[in-house]
Input
Amino acid sequence: MGTLTAPPSRAFLSRVRSGGMGGVLFLGNNWLTQSNVKKITAKLQKAACTTGEPLLIAVDQEGGIVKRLSWAPPTEAPADMQSPTDAHAQAAATATALHTAGIDVDFAPVVDTPSSPSNFLGTRAFSRSRTWNASMARAFVGGLQRNGVAATAKHFPGLGLAGGNTDNGQIEIDAAMWKLKQGLLPFQAAVKAGVKLVMVSTAIYPHLDTSRKPAAFSAKIIQGILRKTLGFTGVTVTDSLTAPAADATPHSATHAMLAGSDLLIWGSESAAEQGYLSLASDAASSKRLQARLAQAAGRIRALKTWLAARGGPSCS
Output
């Protein structure tokens, strides 16, 4: 995904027209005003349709402290949502606002289960109860997707036991296997609810993968736990690959793709562009990588078809 922190430049639009990205992630807040977001998304999709294929356009619209569109729902932080009915209504209103603005993917809900009040997620998480979080995850996913916006359960396999934010440092979650597996219940609920995307964290989980690879680079976690054990068949998306643990991995885009990450995101446009170029270069001499790219592209195109059938972008 390309990354935008301001209206797209000519160079950015040129990359879209050349097919150099399959989606765009909006970051920041101040520039995403209600009056210009729809114009920007329309301009991006017009450029994308030069190649005959629309973009995925995504934001982090969780509610509370993580809300890119200040003028749009959710009007409550996840921790303040009172019931599954409330979560569903908040998500439905969010989907309506995003859909009107030309945004079709919400990188929400957070379904991690914090182990203590001091966990860095704070009010971004629904609660410290995995059963409550499972109910809220089902409701929020349903509210978004029944109104034409793809939901994203994050941050698999869970950051509830993390001692800090993976965006700020390399985080290792050295908890016992049984404790890690307890935190999977809300993800399982989201998968059963038909969630279209799952975001994979860049934390390290030694008890889930002894190779100590960050989750977004771990086939054991993505292919084994998420796909085989939980039965997820949709699009996997990485957490930011500019996070320290991911950034320290040479050829990070290639390693993430080979592990089973379908959609790759970075925290800056320069990093996203470099990641694309690195991936394209590596693919030229690797049939294994070419096969994985084709598989990932197939899942992403299936998601775009699902969105188009619900009034989302198309190039017909």
Remarks:
- The chain has a mean pLDDT of 95.
- Residues 145 and 281 are 36 Å apart (CA to CA).
- The first helix runs from residue 10 to 17.
